[in-house]
Write a structure and sequence with these properties.
heterodimer; A: mainly alpha; Rna Polymerase Sigma Factor, Chain: A; Arc Repressor Mutant, subunit A; B: six-stranded antiparallel β-sheet; about 40% strand
Chain lengths: ~160, ~260
């Protein structure tokens, strides 16, 4: 198990990433908060030995995705409007707020690969392993997600 | 405009709430104390009741289980896979869940309440005025129930886990587990303090009939005034009809049911 100091340092470093992934997956602030806490508790309790920073990061992403899948089985889900989702986040430019709204309007199957690809810099093969879908499907979802964002925001689809 | 740089800049603004770690530490410290007291309660109350009466004698019984620090119970769930579906074993979050020992034949059961707080519209009535399955009163939003009554026959209980769904900010407390009238009665309080500041208390009264193999669940929202006194009054005036119709067990591999009062 991690020492309290190790846990605090890792939690501080990764909790925003966990929260962002959960928010993209669940499209719910309150559920993303719950999941972030659950993942950090699993990290605190795990006996796993991490071989590297990348190994730890990959484990956190996998656990977050599993927690999100589990939460989707819940008998009740709290639906949130775009305004509620945005509450508490400070976007210094109007364009970033618009991009956030457009991303959150995408279907989950596009939102999550886009986050893992563009923010976490995972390859389509790695995303396929994380989400347990073929990498070709990931590429298709990325392409369609980008097209939808381009349609709503403008910009280069082939980024 | 969408490009990688803009996307990164945008989502850098999305951050976990500042009190996330405080809440994690609070949850890490909390279960140790609560588990000791709850485990003591379970050892003191459940072991004599269930093990002696149900397991040893092979009679019907209800068992309340606490998953302790593990906080999970393994269940078969129905998940979407591509355009189809599949059954998969998943760990579902739960501190508390129920299991049943069902002895003998199970019959279809119906209920009708003799008293209720305020106006209500039942979901379904049979020709004799009995409610068939469940009903609730719409509250402050779609799917938001102020109270809810439901009944399950032995065929629906056998081999099933009835799970109190565990959200990250949910705390459960077993207030009562004892014989009451003709039932084994379990009272459970669920308190929720969510990250967005919303709070809720749900109250559950579970009534299990060892004689007729059924479970009646009465659930209420404290803020709507449906406290344990109200639920007990509903329970006291319930009419439950055990029919002669045999209850058939489903062949679905799904082996759980959720106990939760919907929150819109």
């Amino acid at each position: 198990m991690l020492s309290d100091e190790e846990f605090s340092a890792i939690a501080e470093k990764y909790m925003d990433s966990i929260f962002r992934l959960a928010l993209n997956y669940m499209r719910s602030r309150s559920e993303a908060e719950d999941i972030t806490q659950n993942v950090l508790i699993k990290l605190y309790r795990t006996e796993k030995k991490f071989q590297s920073g990348d190994h730890l990061r990959y484990w956190l992403v996998r656990v977050t995705v599993n927690e999100c899948k589990r939460a989707l089985v819940s008998p009740w889900r709290k639906m949130e409007s775009i305004e509620q989702l945005r509450e508490g986040f400070v976007f210094p430019e109007e364009g970033r707020r618009e991009l956030f709204d457009a991303v959150m309007a995408l279907p989950k199957k596009y939102r999550v690969p886009i986050y893992l690809y563009y923010y976490e810099d995972y390859s389509t093969e790695e995303i396929g392993r994380i989400l347990k879908v073929p990498s070709a499907t990931v590429r298709t979802h990325l392409r369609r997600g980008r097209q939808q964002l381009k349609d709503s925001l403008g910009g280069d689809e082939n980024v | 405009m969408f490009d990688k740089e803009n996307y990164k800049r945008c989502f850098t603004c999305v951050r976990a709430p500042e009190d996330t770690l405080t809440k994690v530490y609070r949850r890490l410290n909390r279960p140790k104390l609560r588990t000791i007291s709850r485990t003591s309660l379970l050892v003191a109350v459940l072991v004599p009741l269930f093990v002696v009466t149900a397991l040893a004698a092979g009679l019907s019984g209800i068992l309340l289980k606490d998953t302790g620090e593990e906080g999970n119970v393994s269940c078969f769930v129905h998940v979407a896979k591509g355009k189809g579906t599949e059954y998969k074993e998943l760990d579902l979050p739960a501190k508390l869940y129920l299991e049943f020992n069902i002895d003998g034949e199970s019959k279809k059961v119906l209920f009708t309440p003799g008293w209720l707080p305020g106006q209500h519209t039942p979901d379904f009535r049979d020709e004799n005025g009995y409610e068939m399955i469940r009903w609730g009163t719409e509250g402050r939003g779609s799917g938001d129930f102020l109270f809810n009554l439901s009944i399950y026959n032995g065929a629906q209980l056998e081999g099933k886990k009835f799970i109190f769904w565990q959200g990250a900010d949910d705390e459960f407390e077993v207030l009562r587990n004892e014989k009451w009238q003709d039932w084994q009665r379990i009272d459970v309080k669920q308190e929720t303090h969510r990250g967005d500041g919303s709070e809720r208390q749900c109250n559950y009264v579970l009534l299990f009939s060892e004689e007729f193999n059924y479970l009646m669940i009465l659930a209420g929202d404290q803020s709507a005034g449906t406290d344990f006194t109200v639920l007990e009054k509903i329970a006291e005036d319930l009419s439950i009809k055990v029919t002669d119709v045999p209850a058939l067990r489903s062949h679905s591999p799904i082996d759980y049911n959720m106990i939760a009062l919907a929150w819109g």
